[in-house]
From TrEMBL:
One of its GO terms (cellular component) is periplasmic space. InterPro entries: Bact_solute-bd_prot1, SBP. Pfam families: SBP_bac_8. This is sn-glycerol-3-phosphate-binding periplasmic protein UgpB. It is found in: Periplasm. It comes from Salinihabitans flavidus. Residues 1-22 form the signal peptide. Part of the ABC transporter complex UgpBAEC involved in sn-glycerol-3-phosphate (G3P) import. Binds G3P. The lineage of its organism: Bacteria, Pseudomonadati, Pseudomonadota, Alphaproteobacteria, Rhodobacterales. The complex is composed of two ATP-binding proteins (UgpC), two transmembrane proteins (UgpA and UgpE) and a solute-binding protein (UgpB). Coiled coil: none annotated. The keyword Transport applies.
Length: 437
């Protein structure tokens, strides 16, 4: 074949490839996964695209959870919204309300319309129950689900001569020993509403609001200014005064304190595992179950999830929705979920992925990495421990953060701050109820 023929053949092949790409249904997927998590999320999309002749998932990072959700809402109002948007769990009630206005394509309906065999019972009950309606229909696809755990610096604990604490009294005693042995800020945590109010309440089987924590109706009212939570927050404040607790920020800001050894006991998401594996080289670390306040319970109930799900927005073409359904099927497969779980610390969303990780020997080789799963499935969830579903909860968490920060700075007592948080939070609940009744 001469040069002209080769060039002509190459041109034809390139045009054909371009035409094939153009014929693929384009699906926009906005997510909030940065760093390593974002790389794996984008890899899922790329790997799926490589297997499909008809679909192209465009995976786009749009900032943190709040920024991503805000961007999607603004885009929907402008008619320029993505097909799929990742929304953190506190946005569930807001997305459900949007569904009542016809903005959401429920996942159970999406899969049904696409002709995909979809079995909700394949998913872990503690994960899927959070995102179902009153008829147990799945509204959004669980993607990255986690639970807070107690991260610990084993090297520092061993040097101080203390065991991993299992109770809050033991946390206090361990913090004292660590401080005496030179650890600057022995104890800390992140996402304080999630870890110290929402999960603290569920762990001890105490409601943080009426109406089954919002699952039973919009008329819910906060009750987390009860004596148990007030005493818990006041205890932490006093630990701060004694130099045993060091507040480091609202989200994962205090992560650096744990990584650099300033903090040896840190309560936050199990999903920090992947990053810790890469970044912690100077000491041995592990994760354990959340501590129990033995004044409130002899044993824990269960923890509740954090993380996010994938919601589908109405207003696009059906072939694109079929692609979205096929992508959801792909990321739910055991191989993808086991890979996600083992490399991030998020829990596998299906029982099959959990079993695959066990068969692969992951938990034997990495002790403690099933802590979050054990916590979530410790007992059958009660109305107080199923989870929380509150309108305007993104704003409510901001209120809780402000009030707790006033406690840590010494400007308010725990009683003053939690009473104010409940009053301000209830006002936001009523605003949401009035807008969606």
């Amino acid at each position: 074949m001469n040069v002209k023929s080769i060039l002509t053949a190459t041109t034809i092949a390139s045009l054909a490839a371009g035409a094939a790409h153009a014929e693929k249904a384009q699906v926009q997927f906005w997510h909030a996964m940065g760093g390593t998590l974002g790389e794996i999320t984008d890899k899922f999309a790329a790997d799926f695209n490589a297997t499909s002749d008809t679909c192209e998932i465009n995976s786009i990072y749009k900032g943190n959870y709040t920024e991503n959700m805000t961007a999607a809402i603004a885009a929907f109002r402008a008619g320029q919204h993505p097909h799929i948007v990742q929304v953190f769990e506190v946005g569930t009630a807001t997305m459900m309300a949007a569904g009542d206005q016809g903005a959401i394509y429920p996942v159970y309906k999406l899969m049904e319309d696409a002709g995909i065999d979809f079995d909700p019972s394949a998913y872990l009950p503690a994960v899927i129950s959070y995102y179902t309606d009153t008829d147990n229909n799945l509204l959004s696809l669980p993607f990255n689900s986690s639970s807070p755990v107690l991260w610990y610096n084993k090297t520092a604990l061993d040097a101080a001569g203390v065991d991993v604490p299992e109770t809050w009294d033991e946390v206090h005693a361990a913090a004292e020993a660590l401080k005496a042995n030179g650890v600057e800020k022995p104890f800390s945590f992140g996402w304080q509403s999630w870890t110290q109010i929402e999960n603290f309440s569920a762990w001890h089987d105490m409601p943080m609001a009426t109406e089954e924590n919002g699952f039973a109706g919009l008329g819910t009212e906060f009750t987390f200014n009860n004596e148990a939570v007030v005493n818990h927050i006041q205890r932490i404040a006093e630990m701060g005064q004694d130099g045993l607790f060091g507040y480091g920020g609202r989200r994962g800001d205090s992560r650096a304190q744990f990584v650099n050894g300033e903090t040896a006991l840190w309560i936050n998401s199990s999903a920090y595992y992947g990053g810790f594996k890469q970044d912690i080289t100077d000491f041995e670390f592990g994760q354990a179950m959340l501590p129990v306040d033995t004044d409130l319970a002899d044993a824990p109930q269960n923890s509740i999830i954090g993380g996010a799900t994938l919601w589908v927005l109405q207003g696009h073409e059906q072939p694109e929705y079929t692609c979205a359904a096929e992508f959801f099927q792909y990321v739910s497969e055991p191989e993808q979920q086991a890979y996600w779980h083992q490399n991030t610390g998020y829990v596998p969303i299906t029982t099959a992925a959990y079993e695959l990780s066990r068969e692969q020997g992951f938990y034997e080789e990495n002790p403690g990495t099933d802590t979050a799963i054990k916590q979530l499935s410790l007992n059958t969830p009660t109305p107080a421990s199923k989870g929380v579903r509150f309108g305007n909860f993104v704003q409510v968490r901001d209120v809780i953060n402000e009030e707790l920060e006033a406690v840590w700075s010494g400007d308010k007592t725990a009683r003053e701050a939690l009473d104010a948080a409940v009053e301000r939070g209830n006002a936001l609940l009523r605003k949401f109820e009035n807008a969606n009744s």
